[in-house]
Amino acid sequence: MPYPTILVRGEIKLGQFLKLADLVEDGAEARIAIQSGDVSVNGQVERRRGHRLSDGDAVEIALPSGSAGARVRVEA
């Protein structure tokens, strides 16, 4: 199943994107998920909350109920 595309303006960090895409409830949950290795960007585990995302990046998070994700679309 394809993930939804989330439109962002300019630069966005991984932790911010997880919240914007409603993949986590808050920054604390984003931090925990990232630090525990439950978040990947383009299929690679990413453990830096401040990782800057680029247009077209696919972000996925492993959840107890399965996985969820979203794709980044940067608006200039």
UniProtKB/TrEMBL annotation:
Q: Does the keyword Amino-acid biosynthesis apply?
A: no
Q: Which GO terms describe its molecular function?
A: RNA binding
Q: Which Gene3D superfamilies match?
A: RNA-binding S4 domain
UniProt keyword terms in alphabetical order:
RNA-binding
Q: Which domain of life is it from?
A: Bacteria
Is Calcium among the key words of this record?
Answer: no
Give a single Pfam family match: S4_2
UniProt feature coiled coil, ranges: none
List the InterPro entries hit by this protein, alphabetically.
Answer: S4_RNA-bd_sf
Official protein name in the record? RNA-binding S4 domain-containing protein
Organism of origin is Actinomyces timonensis
